[in-house]
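Quick illustration, no need to memorize.
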Amino acid sequence: MGVQTEVLKAFRFTLDPSPVQEETLLRHAGAARWAFNHALGMKVSAHRQWRLQVDELVAAGVSEAEARKRVRVPIPSKPAVQKHLNAIKGDSWTPDLAPGAAGPQRPCPWWHEVNTYAFQSAMIDADRAWQNWLASLSGRRAGRKVGYPRFKEKGRSREAFRLHHDVKRPGIRLATYRRLRLPAIGEIRLHDTGKALSRLISNGQAVVQSVTVARSGHRWYASVLCKVTADLPIKATAAQRAAGTVGVDLGVKTLAALSKPLPRTRGHANDTGLLVPNPRHLAAAMRRLKKAQQALARTEKTSIRRRKAQRRVARIHHEVATRRHGVLHELTKRLATGFATVAVEDLHVAGMTRSAKGTREKPGRRVRQKSGLNRTILDTAMGEMRRQLTYKTSWYGSQLAVLDRWWPSSKTCSTCGWQNPHQTLADRVFTCTQCHLTLDRDLNAARNIERHATPIEPPVAPGRGETQNARGARVRPPGPRAERHPAMKREDTAPAPADTVPPQRNDPLTSPNPRQKPAKLP
């Protein structure tokens, strides 16, 4: 039994464009990059004018606060940028743009060769980047600080563009199960099938909103965003309730340690162990990647061979990322569909992978070893697994539970609750001196996670704004001691009741800081 609701769902397809179509895709990506830079340039210019006028008033004897109140320079948004661009863009067939002709040169006379939504979506992205910076500057955005928006550089930025669906014109649709039609580009062959999306559209259960076309490595991908009328389950199935709660301890030696074996599914009948092995995709490709990067370092800048070497390195990285995402999607779906509750730890991956090089005055120790550990931790993609579990549990009727970051799951006995204050990372087997339990360290932690994790709400609840960042960590603790907290998992050894979980520290939703002031524009 479920409830009918509309959700946004993206269907990702691998494209197989012809050489002519690939040139068209590159032209659209270049137009989107140009439009983003043009919109951002107008915003930066307005910001500089505001800063210059404020400095002039301060030099004249006006206080900084009073000068900021007096100066008003509006930052152009997408409608103003588009209106300005329509007035100056020109056409490629105008007489004043002929070779050798005198007259003003237009900024983008080739605008009619690409779809107009490639320009408009890029301007919207520029507005979002500017608003994200302002929200982060004032403390209204969760997660780490967002820097000043930067221009997109050709050859370094991602080749991507977004087209919106237009119902009045031949818009985005599936011509067949293996061909996707895009406006101004035509029908592009797909490597995989679009049967699932085509049937949803035919039945009236899905409406296309937009498509994002991007290049990753040597492949082009199209993500078709649809508004889908889905029958989401409101409670777990009988099989999920019978399986109960599973604790998942993410690690490096093993990808995940489970407190209960995975349920048997078709194609995975024998894969029901408690320890999910770590494929180590990056380590497997490190030899090829090292040779490709060495060959890239030997090339000359701006040469043709350098571009070929860059494509070779990008292809290896893309293959590693594809394999990693395939394993994570398979594991997270089996967890979300096989259990009523999936319990994980609230890990702060950014703090766990922080560099150990230190400063010039206080250099770090074992920097090379820590760098290798950071590389291995990032290869497991712990934050991505948390993100996938967050939305997949809502799809399949299960629930996500999170254990507090500071709870010592690896140092606590899962049977009697005794804590070992002297246990280190080198101790891979947990031994309890009270009840004489001897168990693998990760399995013991998984059992504790299953027992003490508490269910949470989705990361972004209606009407509450952002509560977590993309890595699954909560917002930076406010107050004067915010910078003193280590941004990584710490397991205290103080005894705690086995059936209680410490509350979140300095949660901005429950304990706002009255001394926090809105940030000022630089």
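The chain has three domains: 2-8+169-233, 21-138, 238-484.
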